[in-house]
């Protein structure tokens, strides 16, 4: 899945599709006033940014979730370095290769 939208829309897409995942943010690109960079849900990040940096939610972003990576990039800041890393808590379906191994013959 790839989505090119505003950061808020990308985070809402993560919240809708992967509600049990956690997100870490790259402290070099984002700061939350001393808050930990690890273990956020998408909705909690949206709420925190509404309170502390509402303008950041309106920045163009690129959400990429595939077999190799699950990340959000802030296009205006860095297309090569992810701003957010999405971590599975056992809810993302197994990778295609693994699913094929599990299917009965």
Proportion of beta-strand residues: 15-25%
**Mean residue pLDDT:** 81
Poorly predicted sequence stretches spanning 5 or more consecutive residues:
91-103
How would you classify the helix and strand content by structural class? alpha+beta
Largest sheet data: 5 strands, antiparallel
Helical residue percent band: 25-40%
Distance between the ends: 29 Å
Structure summary, number of beta strands: 5
User: Which geometry do the CA atoms define?
Assistant: globular
Describe the structure.
Helices cover 28% and strands 23% of the residues. With 105 residues, it is of the alpha+beta class. The chain has a 5-stranded antiparallel β-sheet. α1 packs antiparallel against α2. The protein is globular and about 35 Å long.
Short description:
The protein has 105 residues and is an alpha+beta fold.
List its traits.
23% strand, alpha+beta, globular, 105 residues, five-stranded antiparallel sheet
Give the SSE layout.
Layout: E1 2-6, H1 7-17, E2 22-25, H2 42-52, E3 60-65, E4 70-74, E5 84-87, H3 96-102
Helix pairs in contact: 1-2
């Amino acid at each position: 899945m790839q989505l090119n939208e505003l950061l808020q829309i990308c985070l809402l897409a993560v919240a809708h599709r992967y509600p049990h995942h956690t997100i870490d943010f790259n402290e070099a690109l984002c700061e939350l006033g001393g808050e930990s960079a690890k273990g956020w849900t998408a909705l909690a990040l949206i709420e925190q940014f509404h309170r502390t940096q509402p303008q950041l939610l309106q920045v163009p972003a690129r959400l990429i979730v595939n077999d190799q990576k699950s990340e959000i990039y802030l296009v205006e800041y860095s297309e090569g370095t992810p701003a957010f890393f999405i971590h599975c808590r056992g809810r993302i379906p197994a990778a295609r290769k693994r699913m094929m191994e599990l299917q009965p013959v």
